[in-house]
Amino acid sequence: MFGKRTSFGGNTPGVGEVARPVQSPPPRADVPAPPVSRPADTDSMASRLRPGEDVIDVGTPVNAQRDKEYFHTKSAIFNALIDSIDLSQLATMDQVAAREEIRDIVAEIIALKSIIMSISEQEDLLEDICNDVLGYGPLEPLLARDDIADIMVNGSQRCYIEVNGKVRLTNVRFRDDSHLMNVCQRIVSQVGRRVDESSPICDARLPDGSRVNVIAPPLAIDGAALTIRKFKRDKLTLQQLVKYNSISPEGAEVLRILGKVRANVLISGGTGSGKTTLLNCLTAFIEKDERVITCEDSAELQLQQPHVVRLETRPPNLEGEGEITMRDLIKNCLRMRPERIIVGEVRGPESFDLLQAMNTGHDGSMGTLHANSPREALARLESMFTMGGYSLPSRTIREMITSSIDVVVQAARLRDGSRRITHITEVLGMEGDVIVTQDIFLYDITGEDANGMLLGRHRSTGITKPQFAERARYFNEEANLVEALEKSNTEQHELMG
Ligand SMILES: Nc1ncnc2c1ncn2[C@@H]1O[C@H](COP(=O)(O)OP(=O)(O)O)[C@@H](O)[C@H]1O
Ligand SMILES: [Mg+2]
User: Fold this and answer.
1) Three-class SS string for 237-301?
2) Nearest-5° Cα angle at 222, 218 to 226
3) What span, in angstroms and rounded, lies between the C-alpha atoms of 237 and 234?
């Protein structure tokens, strides 16, 4: 859904110190409108449904099903409002004070223009205007909900959400294409970017960390498409992964030990398989006093430790300048005296720098990578080296990989939609020109139940003294490791016997 490269503009606000929408003046009517600006339909939502579709009411459907007159009035008031106040000043106020300010001015405008309105109409209008000035217009009620995973706006009249794994059409609508473009523009302007006809593709992030992608006309034929992947405030914990059967308790114990004993871990998996979630879980076992530096394309990790520096890449600006790549970040990171380096996703030449870091005393570094098996992950790592223009003999590259990576953990989204950790695989060394790996922990699919859900179980492979047992001993975790591995192995014997 989001391009491989999630990119952000210059002064990306941190998740904590949030840039308020009002810091950049809201787009006005003169913001470039998409070339095909269709008037808003005023027919009811129901008549817009396609066969087999139903719509869910998501509370105040701001702007939906209101007549043209209302929007006309609102536009007039809105324009008068932005003419009469300095929006950048609103930035210095908190939400409540800003709303009060807007309320006063709007009341004044209504009186001045002798507009006749009931109190409740005025309240609705005020809410609408505040959402437009301080927030994200009709999207506000959706953004406020925690149970929504994704928001997908297909042009001004259709907005879908994903709740509980299901995609549903909502009754949220925008006035017209330019209203939608204005909201898109407001979102991306917070990270110093623009979206219009000349740069119709844009990635951004909301202050709460949600990821946003906008693709505007003329590329999007039926009006701008806005996709928001809502930021999950509470990332899953390892205990929850156990509860969801993504990993057995013993497997989780092995992962805990890997995090604790500063093994260099590569997490491999497909898109949406839970790599980032797993990486986040592993970071929970980093000691409080370790200096950790995270490098990501868009900050997703939520480390609990106090001593963390978070870094984020930056895409080039409109002139094609100013790009800061993952490579740049990792290189710089090495000058920051890190104890551990955590890389959100390795996908290019930065693989070289990450392995160098792992090799040079930054034990316990971790990263994720897109691959379907541990072996494929290692092969991809190797091919990424060549992307950086290194013409090292492949044997040298493989030696570097084996001496850096201790363990590959494989995450997978199975065909029934469940997410499992399918492999914990150790990288042993080289035999001739080949990298030798050894599975420590596996997930076996044993069948399928009546509902088409896959049955299976996690087991250890019988290896109770993996290579990293030595590390575990050093950190006083060897007994725990052996116990976890033996336990899931005996269970296996019992089952078979
Ligand atoms: N083991 C799991 N069980 C259930 N949901 C999971 C699990 N792991 C991840 N998820 C959910 O799946 C989605 C994608 O996870 P994420 O870690 O971002 O995947 P990736 O980084 O591989 O693309 C998130 O919404 C996350 O909460
Ligand atoms: Mg991810």
Assistant:
1) CHHHHHHCCCCCHHHHHHHHHHHHCCCCEEEEECCCCCHHHHHHHHHCCCCCCCCEEEEECCCCC
2) 85
3) 9
d(Cα 229, Cα 151) in Å, to the nearest integer?
Answer: 7
Contact 61 CB / ligand 1 (< 6 Å) = no
Give the model confidence (pLDDT) of 274-286 as tens digits. 999 999 999 999 9
Binding site membership of 241 for ligand 1 (Cβ less than 6 Å):
yes
Nearest to 405 by CA among 252, 258, 269: 258
Looking at residue 335, the DSSP 8-state letter turns out to be: G
End-to-end, the C-alpha distance of the chain in Å comes to 47
Which ligand 1 atom lies nearest to the CA of residue 420?
A: 1
Q: From the alpha carbon of 278, which atom of ligand 1 is closest?
A: 17
Long-range contacts of 51-55 (CB under 8 A, 24+ apart): 53/169, 54/168, 54/169, 55/168, 55/169, 55/170, 55/171
For the record, the structure tokens of 201 come out as: 């593709």
Give the model confidence (pLDDT) of 123-138 as tens digits.
888 887 887 777 788 8
Global confidence as pTM: 0.71
Residue-wise pLDDT for 315-347, tens only, equals 777 677 888 999 999 999 999 999 999 999 999
Interacting residues of 401 by C-beta distance below 8 A, sequence separation 6+: 355, 378, 381, 382, 427, 435
- 423 contacts 456 by C-beta, under 8 angstroms: no
Q: For residues 101 and 93, is the Cβ–Cβ distance under 8 A? A: yes
Ligand showing the shortest atom-to-Cα distance for residue 280 = 1
- CA pair distance 347, 351, nearest whole angstrom: 7
For residue 244, give the ligand 1 atom closest to its CA.
3
Instruction: For the chain, list the domains and their CATH numbers.
Output: 21-229 (3.30.450.90), 238-496 (3.40.50.300)
Find the 226 Cα to ligand 1 centroid distance in Å. Answer: 22
For β-strands 265-269 and 292-296, DSSP reports them as: unpaired
Smallest-distance ligand from the CA of 235: 1
Higher pLDDT residue, 89 or 237? 237
Query: Average pLDDT for residues 193-215, to the nearest whole number?
Result: 85
